[in-house]
Amino acid sequence: QLMLLLMAVMLAVGYGSLLGESNNEPKAPLAIFFLLNFSTSILIWSTGLLYSPFIILYAILIIATTQLYHYGYGLLQTVLALAGLIAVYGMTVYRILPYQSLLPDSDISILYQPTAVILLYGLLYASLLFFAVFAASSARMMLFRPMKKLDLDTTFQEKIIQEMPTSVIVTDADLSILGYNPAASVRFPCQNGHSLTEYLQLPEAKLKELLEALSENGKDQELSWKLDTGEKMQVTIEVHVLKGEKKETNTYIIFLR
Questions:
Q1: 35 CB contacts (<8 Å, ≥6 apart)?
Q2: pLDDT confidence of 19, banded at 50, 70, 90?
Q3: Which of 99, 150, 125 minimizes the C-alpha distance to 253?
Q4: Which of 79, 115, 215, 225 could pair with 241 in a Cys bridge, judged by C-beta atoms 3.0 to 4.6 Å apart?
Q5: What is 180-195 written as a DSSP string?
Q6: How far apart are CA 1 and CA 7, in angstroms?
Q7: How does DSSP assign 22-53, residue by residue?
Q8: Residue 250 · residue 173 · CB < 8 Å
Q9: How many Cα atoms sit within 13 Å of 239 on the Cβ side?
Q10: Phi then psi for 45, rounded to 5 degrees?
Q11: Which pLDDT score is estimated for 156?
Q12: What digits encode the pLDDT tens for the residues 132-154?
């Protein structure tokens, strides 16, 4: 109960820091999310480890971090969650930490199961957490609404993009596709969350360099686009970069014809 109360206070402090107006990305809630990850490991240890009902809190934290910030932070949350779960499980099994459980009449022997069973538990929890981060990453574009007037996600500009006949694809700084307009979905089929490199068939570093160069000089470039059938078609691209506070928060807007 005390741990849950402490986690609630930390969450309140994190969101309380958002009350002031700022054009910069708030970092306090992100730090709080990582502290909550650590606190969740302690909570899980004190409530039955592999049988704790609070393991789902890991997935909630991962989804919130991924949608509000960047899926890279969500991946880090996933790794920390798995590391924390393994750490408290190992220390309990080797009697470094005492075993505690919410279940009546349970003891530490419940953790000593065949290796295959423990591995199955680990695989299921890892699958849940990685699914949470990758599923949440595709929702970032819809939930993130920048304050700048000229940003793509403001309502009026978004309507224009949806109605225009030119194909438009938007990616994050890692070239993961965040969204596309109807024209792009018809002429250049792609999927949110997939990397642009899958379709343009170029290494990530080389493609980033090309997009930056096209954005700076205002020129276009003819490339090959890989269709779902495996066939390739010629495509001409133009690029505009929405600069973020840091380079890793840049957004690429790619016009295709």
A1: 10
A2: low
A3: 150
A4: 215
A5: E-HHHHHHS---TTSB
A6: 10
A7: -SSPP-HHHHHHHHHHHHHHHHHHTTTGGG-G
A8: yes
A9: 25
A10: -60, -40
A11: 57
A12: 877 776 655 555 444 444 444 44
